[in-house]
Design a protein that fits this description.
4 copies of one chain form a homotetramer. Chain A is globular. In chain A, a hairpin with a 2-residue loop joins strand 2 and strand 3. In chain A, about 40% of the residues lie in helices and about 30% in strands. Chain A has about 100 residues and is α+β, with helices and mostly antiparallel strands. Chain A has helices spanning about 20-30, 50-65, 85-100; strands spanning about 1-10, 35-40, 40-45, 70-80. The interface of A and D includes residues 26, 38 and 94 of A.
């Protein structure tokens, strides 16, 4: 089973720049050992079960709660396919193959 | 604490109409006893903890898994405020009050 | 054609409460004459073409730009069906009918 | 001005795999000359104005309309900062710098 999560989670009570708070969330994800990829708009994580994915979302909030954030916003997308795995690299490669692009 | 979740979750392997599968997810939410509101683009749920919210997301997927769905997509938004409650009705009322609208 | 848009757009440089800025966006939508519905997590708009929808998104940003916002975040969902119309009321009624619920 | 858009747009009337339709959307984006990055969950585009961004969203739908898609779903996120530019590379580098990561 492949569960892909794309998510951004950030405080909205901290002003224009939130990279310090976001960095602590990313550190937690890195330390969790999950497969992940940073993007300019969020973090993409692949796990084998939805339980694992949702546990990381919970831990991400706990990081921000510990920072004292009084309002937290998060936007998330899930793409779940029971019969697949290793899509973190595979999905982009499949599109690049179709459009004849080896570099982007 | 008030955790607002807006989410849509649906199979993408079932063709143009998915209202049958979506109805089963809504029934599960209704039976859970959580405060919720149906909208034309998803369901909004308010709970007191993020754990409760994420447990409902897990159960929503289990409903679709039981239906045999081979690909499930979900888009979710969270708005979490530790020091608030009862925002399911309150947020819209606050905006309507500001724009002088009692009916929309 | 029915284009449903669910969207939230708000400044992230204004602190915990943004209901004042959001109210001005809602006022603009109300004055546009488009069919819309406020929810605790955003606004749902139905138009006949995607052009109309995207023009409203552009105008929503202009409202916040005029307020001097230095960082604006928006999360949007589109559900587009060429052969349908009047889904702002119809989608919820269809689900309620399936789950035997006339009041929620 | 930097407008970052993260978006996924896909037909829901075509069954489990939609990589053929999605590839045509990506080809259009590549040919537009906009700065973009493919991810396993969507495409991230950076433009100098919101008008340019929304024009690409419109064109993406036109690609799927031409393919005869009868239902199209899209999820989008915008991060708009008037006083910034070149964030497609910069945002990830800033986070990696903070967490002491040069490779991920």
């Amino acid at each position: 089973m492949s569960v892909l999560l794309e998510f951004a989670m950030f405080p909205t009570d901290r002003g224009e720049s939130v990279s310090q708070e976001v960095s602590k969330v990313i550190e937690m994800i890195r330390e969790s050992g999950a497969s992940y990829q940073l993007t300019p708009m969020g973090t993409i994580i692949e796990t084998d079960t939805l339980e694992q994915t949702l546990a990381l979302v919970q831990q991400a909030y706990q990081v921000l709660e510990k920072e004292g954030c009084q309002r937290v916003y998060s936007s998330l997308k899930l793409d779940i396919r029971p019969g697949k795995d290793n899509r973190l690299a595979g999905k982009v490669a499949s599109i690049q193959d179709k459009i004849g692009d080896v570099n982007s």
